[in-house]
Amino acid sequence: MQSPLTNFVLRPRSTPHRHRRTSSSASSLLVLDSSPLHVDNSLGGLSPVSAQAGALRHEAHPPSSGSDDDGIPCSAEHRASFESPFPSPFSLNVPLATEAAYLCTLTLSNNACSLSLCGDLLYTGLGTGDIVVFKTPRLPECARFGIGSLPIRAISVTDDMIFSAHKDHKIRIWQRPSADGTHYHLVRTLPTTTDYLRNLLLSNRYIQIRRHHKQLWIRHVDTITAIAVDSTSLLLYTASWDRTFKIWNLRNLRCVQSVRAHDDAINAIILSSQPEGLIYTASSDGTIKVWKKLTAQKVVLATTLTGHNASVNALLTMSKFNPGVLYSGGSDCCINVWERVSSNKLVWKLAASLKGHRQPVLCLASAGRLVCSGGADRMIRVWRREGVAGSSFTCLAILQGHRGPVKSVAMAISSLRSCYVYSASLDGTTKVWSVLYDRDDHEDDLSSR
């Protein structure tokens, strides 16, 4: 475990800038006063309203060596590939236009690939094949379990189960312990042996995946990138680079449908909280597709959203605040905000496009009305939607400190004007960030805890 980042220094500027410093027992926080950024109504992106804020410089211990299972090196001799063409995070000289203070309170060298926050527990899927459970926000380790040797690609957690996707293109289901227990045990692996044998001898249960090569339709044949769980209907959805998503009945642990959804790899799948039970998928073909349930276990395509000009890598919906709003992050460096035109029609409009990342947006997370985004530019941006139904956003903070692309993020509200952000990067580290921001007139984030 590495030491927290503790020293923040205001770099001298030729122009005056307002600032104030507050201290705590652990470290000092520098609060910069600057005007927020607003979305250009023409979808041209964000533009600063005031002069640029001063740059910050901080000292930190570099992360330990390691490597990502995807073949992306994390050792010291290869870190230059992460840093170019961007400035070093340890000597920042980038204009920051934010209105929040932030502090990296903890750095772990654990090679986490995926994060999932459930209550006050943070679940991390590691490249070693283990799942490590931490108590937030200080992250003492509560439990560690797994199968080892099979890196975890995606993880999803419900009140009583954990679902993990592994390098062998299979899904493991784990039972969460009781409130006073710490032992997690493996329940089943999907597809099950029973389901496999049911389909093995039937010729119509095979699909063509490559020339002269067929595979059972119940199996993914490439990396599983995302997992979504419908706890009400007891259905599990898995998306893969094999261009399909599959639906699993958790009552009998059978695969009930396999959908060839896109013309390229599927990078994300999420479920809508609205009554129709919509499913959203995002793909490297640059499209977002909306699926609706035809029956309890069958889905059909409802509409296709086209607004990105590159791969779509991440999706997000906010169940409590604006459930009809969809966020998508793409390799065009944009976060598109989609609003449903009418609750009676499956029609969406592109309401805003948030620009600020300098390389592809890889992950999204939310808490209350806050949204955070992680990118290949090694940065994490924290956004707030202003008003209940407005299309104006404020970039509250730009979190800088990772030395590799940010692969997964999670966040939680800690008070009326602060939140915690958890981030996992290809530099092999997981970081905890404390963000302090001004509460606006419409703030109601705390009620989402």
TrEMBL record:
Q: Which InterPro entries match?
A: JINGUBANG-like (IPR045182), WD40/YVTN_repeat-like_dom_sf (IPR015943), WD40_PAC1 (IPR020472), WD40_repeat_dom_sf (IPR036322), WD40_rpt (IPR001680)
Q: Where are the WD repeats?
A: 217-258, 259-292, 354-383, 399-435
Pfam families with a match to the protein in the record: WD40
Entry annotated with the keyword Nucleus: no
Put simply, this protein is called Protein JINGUBANG
Q: Domain of life here?
A: Eukaryota
Q: Which organism is it from?
A: Ceratopteris richardii
Q: Which CDD domains does the entry link to?
A: WD40
Is the keyword Nucleus assigned to this protein?
A: no
